[in-house]
Design a protein that fits this description.
Layout lengths: L5 H22 L7 H19 L12 H22 L3 H19 L11
Helix pairs in contact: 1-2, 2-3, 3-4
């Protein structure tokens, strides 16, 4: 049951990137480890750049294949699931990263295969 199309994914990319940049400050992350505050905004800026350069209808400079975008997103999702354990995040810091990681991995798992995704 894969229903997240390339178009849906593209529409999610920009608000998610902005949320990754701003939510850590709004939520006051960093209580268990200062890195909990800093990693997400860096990933958010990177996600924004990835989106700008991805070959989908909302990409501005369409040079990166969509399949590569999905691979990077999945890797970030897995990283977010591992970071709380690896860096000793707890409480809200850990929950933030676990929820974001689970959401990203789920979206990638529900992504519809694209016919134009033949090669990276």
């Amino acid at each position: 049951m894969r229903f997240v199309t390339k178009t849906i994914h593209a529409w999610l990319d920009y608000p998610v990137a902005l949320a990754l940049m701003g939510l850590p400050f709004l939520l006051g992350l960093g209580g268990s480890n200062p890195l909990a505050l800093n990693i997400s905004p860096i990933v958010g800026v990177t996600a924004l750049l990835l989106t700008v350069f991805t070959d989908h209808h909302l990409g501005v400079i369409r040079v990166l294949p969509y399949k590569l975008h999905l691979v990077v997103d999945f890797a970030v999702g897995v990283l977010f699931l591992i970071l709380p354990i690896a860096l000793g995040f707890s409480g809200l810091d850990a929950a933030y990263y676990w929820l974001n990681g689970a959401a990203v991995v789920t979206v990638i798992g529900l992504s519809k295969p694209e016919t134009d995704m033949a090669a990276v």
